[in-house]
Every structure is written in structure tokens, then in C-alpha cells.
Amino acid sequence: MIEQRRRFQGGRHPVWMEEAFVCMIDQRALPHEEILLRLGSYPETTAAIRDMAVRGAGSIGVAAGFAMAQAALNAPASGFLEEMERAAAHIRLARPTAKNLFYAVDRVLAAVKETSSPEQARQRARMEAQAVAEDDARMTQEIAKAGLPLIPAGEAVLTHCNAGWLAYPGWGTALAPIYLAHEQGIRVFVYATETRPRSQGAKLTTWELAQAGIPHALLADTAVGFTMRKGEIGMVIVGADRIAANGDTANKIGTYSLSILAESHGIPFYVAAPSPTFDAECPSGDQIPIEERDEREVLEATGRSAAGVVESVRVATPGIRARNPAFDVTPAKWITGFITECGIVEPQPQAIAQFLDKRRHALLR
Ligand code: MRU
């Protein structure tokens, strides 16, 4: 199992660096095939982010940090910083919504600028990119601990998309408290929503949960209201791609509808995310850039046929068009709380500012 190859301190890592190569589990092939990609240059790593071989806010960030390290390795000594700025601009265009991508690129670029020679900068870029991955993994362990007491005994937890270790290195975000509960022998049952159009729930979350031996069932996106009304869901935990200063949260398309359903059934709705996903400079959800992806993702479905062939088939009426917004924004008012590396943070501006201040000071020490 390739996922076990990267099981080191701080949980599991879906993307890592070996010498000049960025290696990653190709998440497009899961759960049918386990394919490992070895990418030799920052444009290749950027393309892997854009094409979603690696996806999920934290993993996108880590891949972007490693792409910057690759850029540093290959940049010529003359015009080194200009080349790093060019690479940063290129990588930033890979995907627009997840804050972690911009966080990682800026962090590696800032580290490089502190050095006094290209040789030093190459080493520093590699170290900083690795630090992004390891800091992320540590934060997910803290999220696991903070979220554990919230897991309702004997009731099912619903999650959307994939916010496990494939999406955020370490323990994942939304799945982190669930992994910890399971490890501690607490009975926990998970409903994973299918998450059309790319089906990250059906393909990735169920794969992770099955590997961990956590009891779960797949739920069609359209079955959530029915299941909540029957009293079969005790809590919702989702991850996040970007959280604005006022607490509005961008996450996988469909999260907004889930939050309203949870609110109207009196079910707690938590967002699990560490500080690199928060965007203090973004005042509200209205300013979060929302990615629109290719309409084919909606018009088609991809899976494995009875003959064992992975293929895409057209589902929709021939000749029609589709819209494909990949994320939506859940207003802070529908969020019960943020599960962070510093505990539970209330979904309101002062609490978020205090949390981010605390994190900034911790990093400066
Ligand atoms: O389009 P994706 O698969 O990258 O979207 C991922 C999500 O929306 C996750 O729920 C989100 O990143 C939170 S997990 C870190």
C-alpha cells in the first residue's frame, strides 16, 4: 500500500519530496488504483494541482510549497529571485479558492528572500516547504484532540467531500477527531456524502474510512435532508478551503446547503480547519474567489466498469451545457464553531482575530 510508505511522525502524507522530485498519490485514480506520481519540475507539480491529482486545501498547499522548492533547485544563480517570483506567480494560478496554496507559496518565497545566496536559498526553500508539511500535520493532531469531546456518543457524524489525510496531511481536518475517537475505542459511525460532481466522498472518504476500519455508509447528496429528519445524524463536521475574517467559510460545493439543513434540524455544524486556511485579509465570504471547473465533470461520471476498466461515461442529455462551481460559501451564522489547533473558535470576527493573533505570536517566538 503506497499510503503506508509515507506514514511518519504526524500521520500520513499524500505528497512528499524525494531529492528533486515531488511524489504524490494520484487521487484521481482512487479508489480503483493506487498510482504514485514522481514529478520533476515545478510546472509539472503545478499541473498536478490544477488537474487535481492532489487536492484538498492542506495537500494543495504542501504540493505548492514543494513546487517552490523545485523552482529554487532549478533557478539559475543570476536572476534567481526574479525566477522565484515568476514561479510563485505561476503556482498561484493553479487553483484559486484554497488559502493554503497562497500561504505555502508566500511562506517559501519569504524564507528564500531572507537568504544571502542562491545556494543558501535552495536549501532554505526545501526546508521551509518541508516545515509547511510537518506543521500542517502537527496542527491536525491538535484538531483531533480539540474535536474529540464534540463527537456525539452513539450518534452518526456526517461529513462532506474529503477532509481526511488525503486532503490535509497528518490526520486530515474533519476526519481528525473521528480517527482519534476510533483509535481510543469510542464507537463512531460516519455518513460520507457522495459529493458530486467529482465524488470525493464516494471515492476518497470511504476509501480512507475503509482502510482505517471505521464503520461508515455512503449517502447520496440528495439523501441528507431525509436522514437528518429521521434523527439519524448527531453532528456535521466539514473541512474548509478558505475562511474569511468574519467566519464565512468556503468549502466544497454543497456545504452551504448542508449547513442550512443542519440548522433547521437543530444539528451542530462544525468546520475543522487550522490557521493556514484562515484569510485575515478577506473581510467576508463575498470576496472569496470561487473556482468554476470544466462542465464535463457534471455532464459525465467516472468509475470502474465490470470489466475492470476505469472510464468516464456521459450521464446528461447529449448537447446540453452545465455549470460547475466547485465551492460555495457557508455564512458564519450557520456554523456552530471552528475546530482549530488552538481549540474551538467561535464563528465571529473578534474570536477569529484573537485566534490568528495567538498563532502569529507563537510563530514569531
Ligand atoms: O476540490 P477539492 O477536492 O480540492 O476540494 C476539497 C474540499 O473542499 C475539502 O472539503 C476541503 O479542502 C477541506 S479539507 C482540507
Q: Can you describe what's shown?
A:
The chain has 365 residues and is α/β, with parallel strands linked by helices. It has 2 domains: 2-138, Four Helix Bundle (Hemerythrin (Met), subunit A) (Up-down Bundle); 142-364, Translation initiation factor eif-2b, domain 2 (Rossmann fold, 3-Layer(aba) Sandwich), CATH 3.40.50.10470. It is built from 12 helices and 18 strands. The protein has helices at residues 2-5, 42-50, 57-74, 80-92, 99-113, 118-147, 176-183, 200-212, 224-229, 255-264, 296-299, 349-364, and strands at 7-8, 11-12, 15-18, 21-25, 36-39, 156-159, 189-193, 216-219, 235-238, 242-244, 249-252, 269-272, 278-279, 300-304, 310-314, 327-330, 337-340, 343-345. The chain has a 7-stranded mixed β-sheet with strand order 8-7-6-9-12-17-18, sandwiched between helices. Strands 13-10-11-16 form a 4-stranded mixed β-sheet, with helices on one face. A hairpin with a 5-residue loop joins strand 14 and strand 15. Helix 3 (57-74) packs antiparallel against helix 4, helix 3 packs antiparallel against helix 6 and helix 4 (80-92) runs antiparallel to helix 5. The longest helix is centred in the middle third of the chain and has 30 residues, at 118-147. The chain is globular. The two termini are 39 Å apart. The mean pLDDT is 96. Bound molecules: 5-S-methyl-1-O-phosphono-5-thio-D-ribulose (MRU).
